[in-house]
Amino acid sequence: MAGTDIGLDKTLAALGVTEAAQIGARFEQVFASFDGQLQAIHDESAWKLFRDAWLGRKSGVLTQITDNWLKPATPELKRVVGQKLNELRAHVESQIEARRAAIESGAEEAALAKERVDLSLPGVIRPIGSHHLIRRVFQEIEDIFVSIGFSVVEGPEIETPYYNFEALNIPEFHPVRDDMDTFYIELPKGAPTPLLLRTHTSPMQIRTMEKQKPPVRVIVPGKVYRRDNPDATHSFMFHQVEGLAVDTDITFCDFTGTIEYFVKQFFGPSVKTRFRPSYFPFTEPSVEFDVSCPFCGGTGASNGATCSKCKGAAWIELFGAGMVDPAVYGFVNYDAKKVSGFAFGIGIDRLAMLKYGIDDIQVFFQNDVRFLKQFP
Ligand code: DAH
Questions:
Q1: Tens of pLDDT, residues 130-139
Q2: Whose CA is nearest to atom 2 of ligand 1?
Q3: Are 176 and 281 in contact (CB under 8 A)?
């Protein structure tokens, strides 16, 4: 400690102090040294060292002053030194005690502050996600069909060729399989049947009819897979909603009326629908539904220019549908003479792109939050 530079190891005589008047200045130095050192004492371990340095019996500063300054002093000086030493002792003891109390309560406060929960602080706020646009469009379509008596069923994404093709009246040699030449699963030798990722949701028509007798009114949302190269309108995985209604007296009118109702609910009441002949192995007759372009009001032009959405055609192709081919009933033991019905297969990604003005199907699958955030 600061003992040597203020002469604690020497007698007053050796320091040249011969008169009482000089003693005050000596003690001033000791007081100043003590007060200076005290400023730096902030924790318990430093405080203990400091206390021993000043009050320690063997070599504390007060002991040194007693031994080196007081005891050898001449009787005239001794009285003044003794008085100053008492003042110093009182100061040192009270200051050291005060510092101890401060450190203790400070430590307690710090410990308390660490544990204290501040209820006024904002909590951890995790950003709330939103439904993916595809999910949202699924929901819109489900709501519309559920409101008119359809129920929602789901089925396996890994299918047998029987459900994906044969039972839908697509025999092995049929050329439409070329379009669906798709993902087969590698199976161990001797597996009972090949398996593939379903190319459409239509297999669920068969699975549903196998399980239940007419009347049937279901829609089937789900993922489907094809060997398509990705571009702005193609993806090897996309989404469909299949629909199937079978009962004893469903007519072509029920069919087109239902579709028209759906399209108006989905795009708004001012759109018109039309259908054109088409071909699917599992429907007869088969049609393709179009909607009058919702963006140019079905005129083919907007703001004096050709409508960019329908390319001036005034109509936009929506999805395939038809009356269920009687051959299909044969696969599920329905009596084709007693029942009739219709089916449809809606491409969700395409519909979502149309309705929400998205021009690249790939953005659905890139999970870029800048895109996702636009549809909260
Ligand atoms: N399964 C067809 C496809 O993916 C879509 C389809 C067309 C489904 C007509 C149907 C339908 O149920 O009747 O290309």
A1: 899 999 999 9
A2: 345
A3: yes
